[in-house]
Design goal:
single chain; mainly alpha; Serine Threonine Protein Phosphatase 5, Tetratricopeptide repeat; 3 domains; 3 strands; 59% helix
Length: 336
């Protein structure tokens, strides 16, 4: 969501404008596109314009997918240009709302941390971690940032490791340990005149930045198109010739899983599944100036949905619901 490419390498203002135009063309994806536009405006240094985009989303008559996340981003941005009181009030509201997305917890906790509110940041990281880790057999990947952030703040506070810090250590995969990355003495090293200390710190920072960019990046997924039962029925009723492509819904689902497993076995990274709808597909066909019966359009449609951020990563995490929508766990459904 938040690009981290330096401003000297990207015209962030132009990219924000492009994303705003795209949001106008695809109103169903406006929330995700405008959030990316706001992130580019923040990187461009135009924080008031970013706030205006957040306000535009929050005042929209359309129902937002995650209004609490938008408020969290707005609070973080406001605090960066001297609107501390308003930012604090929003952060308290976000915490009280108990967000369902770990990202919202991370954003407000990091806003507190970056302004030296370490105790409040620790409380916020802990509240979020408790929500997503309580009774969970293993931490969902989306909640790893909560554990890492909590570990970092606890190191800054000088408190002893607890079981969640140990869990964060096991989840961390870089060669530089979390204790090294989160060592408060690193701050002092940056001001050192000793070349060896500076070189060691640069190595640590590069490792941390690599992990940060990997976490933030949304590489373009190789996506396979999935039609839910009702959508496939409607599609075939409207375009019977596509029945050669989709003999039955069961075969369609089996083909998806088989294709993804073959791609994974060949070493293809970043696989995903996108869910199609008939109205969306028809609109895409019209935009391409062709008929929905053109089977070569199907993978193009999947790619376009993925480019608009609609892909669900495959395979699902252990214990997660199967991608097919039947309601069972993936490991007991198509993951068998």
């Amino acid at each position: 969501m938040r690009p981290d490419t330096p401003a000297e390498n990207v015209d962030h203002s132009a990219e924000a404008a492009r994303l705003e135009r795209t949001a106008g063309l695809y109103p169903e994806d406006a929330e995700a596109l405008l959030l990316r536009a706001a992130a580019h405006l923040e990187l461009a240094g135009d924080r008031p314009a970013a706030t205006a985009l957040y306000d535009r989303l929050l005042s929209s008559p359309d129902t937002l997918e995650d209004p609490v996340l938008v408020r969290a981003l707005k609070a973080s941005n406001l605090w960066e240009y001297d609107h501390e009181a308003e930012a604090r009030a929003i952060i308290e509201g976000v915490r009280a709302a108990s967000p369902r997305d770990p990202a919202a917890w991370v954003i407000v906790a990091e806003a507190l941390e970056s302004h030296d509110e370490l105790e409040a940041a620790h409380e916020t990281f802990t509240e979020g971690a408790t929500k997503f880790l309580k009774d969970a057999p293993e931490p969902p990947k989306s909640a790893h940032a909560l554990l890492f952030g909590r570990h970092r703040v606890r190191r800054m506070l000088g408190v002893a490791h607890d079981e969640w810090d140990a869990l964060a250590d096991t989840l961390h995969t870089l060669p530089v340990s979390l204790d090294e990355l989160h060592d408060p003495k690193r701050v002092w090293s940056l001001g050192s005149d000793n070349p060896a200390e500076l070189e060691a710190e640069i190595f640590r920072l590069r490792a941390e930045l690599g992990a940060y960019r990997e976490a933030l990046s949304r590489p373009f997924p190789v996506a396979v198109l999935h039609w839910p039962t009702d959508e496939l029925r409607e599609l075939l009723e409207a375009y019977p010739s596509l029945s050669a492509e989709y003999p039955s819904h069961e075969e369609h689902l089996a083909a998806i899983e088989q294709s993804l497993r073959e791609l994974a076995a060949s070493g293809t990274p970043n696989l995903g599944i996108v869910t199609g709808t008939v109205p969306s597909y028809e609109a895409f066909a019209a935009s391409e100036g062709t008929s929905p019966t053109d089977t070569t359009l199907l993978p193009q449609y999947a790619t376009t949905l993925a480019a608009r951020g609609r892909a669900m990563p495959w395979p699902p995490q252990r214990g997660a619901e199967c991608w097919c929508g039947a309601g069972g766990a993936y490991g007991e459904c198509h993951g068998v």
